[in-house]
Amino acid sequence: xxxxxxxxxDAVDEGPVASGAESADAGGSTGSPDDHASVAALVRKYxxxxxxYRLNAGDQYVVWLRPDRSHEILAWLRDDADHRYDMxxxxxxxxxxxxxxxxxxxQMYSTPHGRQLRIRCPLPLDAMEIDSVYDLWKSVNxxxxxxxxxxxxxxxxxxxxxxxxxxxxxxxxxPLRKDFPLRGRFSRxxxxxxxxxxxxxxxxxxxxxxxxEPQEVGGAEVGHQGGEG
Amino acid sequence: MATKTVEFTVGQGREMGPGGVGTxxxxxxxxxxxxxxxxxxxxxxxxxxxxxxxxxxxxxxELDGETVTEVVPHIGYLHSSFEKLGEYRTWxxxxxxxxxxxxxxxxIYNCAYVMSVEKLMGIEVTERCKVVRVIIMELDRIFGHLLxxxxxxxxxxxxxxxxxxxxxxxxxxxxxxxxxxxxITTSATRVGGMMADLPEGWLDQLLDFLDNFPKTLDEVxxxxxxxxxxxxxxxxxxxxxxDEAINYGFTGPNLRAAGVPYDVRKDRPYYDYESxxxxxxxxxxxxxxxxxxxxxxxxxxxxxIIRQAMRRLPGGPINVQxxxxxxxxxxxxxxxxxxxxxxxxxxxxxxxxxxxxxxMAIEASKGELGMYVVAEEGSTKPVRWRVRPPSFxxxxxxxxxxxxxxxxDLIMINASLDIVLGEIDR
Amino acid sequence: xxxxxxxxxxGSAKTTGGMFGPGSPTFLTSKVDALINWGRLNSLWPMxxxxxxxxxxxxxxxxxxxxxxxxxxxxxxxxxxxxxVLICAGRVPYxxxxxxxxxxxxxxxxxxxxxxxxxxxxxxVFDVYSMVQGIDTIIPVDVYIPGCPPRPEGLIYGLxxxxxxxxxxxxxxxxxxxxxxxxxxxRPRASEIEVVGLTGPFGNSTQQDKxxxxxxxxxxxxxxxxxx
Lengths: 229, 426, 228
Description:
The complex is a heterotrimer.
Chain A: H1 2-14, H2 37-45, E1 50-56, E2 60-65, H3 70-79, E3 87-95, E4 102-110, E5 115-123, E6 129-131, H4 140-151, E7 154-156, H5 188-196
Chain B: E1 3-6, E2 9-10, E3 23-24, E4 30-33, E5 42-46, E6 58-64, E7 67-74, H1 82-86, H2 95-99, H3 106-121, H4 127-155, H5 160-180, E8 189-190, E9 193-194, H6 202-224, H7 228-234, H8 242-247, H9 253-257, H10 264-267, H11 288-312, H12 330-335, H13 337-348, E10 356-363, E11 368-375, E12 384-388, H14 390-395, H15 398-402, H16 407-416, H17 421-425
Antiparallel strand pairs in B: 1-4, 2-3, 5-6, 6-7, 8-9, 10-11, 11-12
Helix pairs in contact in B: 3-4, 4-5, 4-11, 4-16, 5-6, 6-11
Chain C: H1 3-6, H2 12-16, H3 27-41, E1 46-50, H4 53-62, E2 85-89, H5 97-106, E3 112-116, H6 118-122, E4 143-145, H7 152-167, H8 174-178, H9 192-199, H10 224-227
Helix pairs in contact in C: 3-7, 4-7
């Protein structure tokens, strides 16, 4: 059992290796940016940042952005009077596997203009970091934490970046990545043992309340601790 | 040690003296030592197994006396990895997973998922299917709100509404069962249509429910709406302003209670919702009481929508007439070679999807439910199936809502958000 | 027509006589057994450990249509310290496992456990990284109720089976039945081998290898392997 655990832990440490392959070219047609005021404006204002755009599923525009200045562009989309995307419906990520970049997906909706827009930022596997937009939309608080938990994307500037769905000391990695096996990396016996070894008393510590306060963002290693096994 | 000056007056209080001025005491004021009462913050843990958390939610609260100064919600105690599992299932095999996600309004989830896949594949469902889906979605809006009503009433100490609402829920259980064979886990939809057409007599059963349900709703209404205890427990509790509600990502009745008339059915209509005549109830204060009123009114509006939909229900096939999408009838599959091959291919291989992604938002009973599916060219399974869970985002606001309220109010706020942990944790 | 038939609980001779073999219940203990068992089985206090869909059916069982109160079980005990039957209704992820184990350890003897629904009994469709594959790897289970979710009638039938089980119990066997090994508190009930045996996948709907132990898909492998 110990050897199996060890090999599985090695896999967590090594992580997936970036293959240098391009991110998936997500179908659809290019459409005409003039149909969607925000897409046209983005292409005009940030020609270097917009990687490409697509018209998917009939009427949904998707814009791929470079991740470097994503925060600035998203802030502009929120504040500019012509766009006013005041509702950040969803933040999630997509892993296509084969070492292709993990893409962070923002679903935005503008209540004044009644417009929907999807922004996707491809992150290469060796630089899984992007700016948090928590200061713009409070709604992304848990959504970004979930992406961090399940994909291992670090959101710079998020005040409270730690695992949300999996236990804090989860040692098997980030489950929604394609290199993660459906049943987890450890055997069921090991998973059961680890689950019951969780400290129930830990639930009542005052440390819990320090969560949520601004702290150094460096949680990328949290999931990689080996636990006591 | 700190001291305090004590001054005596004659009489019960200062107002007792002539002209409202207290009569001075013959005793001169003197100093007494004041005990140094240290205030210590108390930490209490609610959940994960607690009847008032409506599931396996864990709230760690810091209390000053009985006032909540900070709440940290912990979730993930029901993380069943639906999204990972979906990547190993064909498009139609995911349908049974969706109703285990929100078991309070399963049909809405069934519909939302297949709507997203159909949009991705460019499938236009038949008119009859659209209207049937509107009926079952509105029926489950009532279904979900009824459970919320019953359990919330228990949280404020009223047991009768629970029994009343479950009585009505049993009627809907019966409707589910006649329609799909299951009480909760319905799995009623398929890509391109429904599992089956409406069974004989189902509409009469539904009509019977619609006739009786408003009476029960009125009864519960009369028990709670003007009830002083209920008002005292809910009014002014957990209030949020409209701008904040949008920024924090509130959707559904929680957002509308804050005065934002955002309803996906009206603002981004699907299935001809714009042609139905119904009102969107909007609150004013954004507190627990307004959320309660919004949901009560929504149930009445849902009854209106169902009645209109029943009137316009057209005939014709319920499934798309495309052998590449819909299964052939059992008779055909058993007697016709070609149909059998279609049946076999559809079951074993699934429906190929075009490359692309699609985000479909609908108005679920708890708020904006988004289904995001990503496919690669020709894949019969999603590369990624993501659910934008409304109560996940709604619950994340609870630290802000509960701050400064009493512990008992925290329970009320939690109940008023209408959460379902199966969908929060997924 | 003897004394036994007049005693509540249907008399012990019929129900316990052959059960424990010769030598166990004397006339006195069997009468006391019958009395105590009658009391126990008609005033069970369930501890509802409801997590998911099954919890809704459990609530439906307690509501007017199915009315658990008919069986003396309307008093849902939300504190494990005052409960007799643990009804584990719904999925149990690994994150919740220590909570379930602790609640079971907190319940006083005599106690029984019901595993309600497919997910609690075997993991159900959720043969995934985060789910306990059957709570019997964590706590001892007396009655399994199949279904996804079971109907309220199913839950009531399960509770009646618990009642039947209580009716068969004898005070003379109390410590045999109820002995708790302190070393087992907060430990898995099953050994590692048993856990692996109990949780092996069945069917091939997810098209995975038998166990995921140490099997890591290397990033070089094409994504088709994962998706096909």
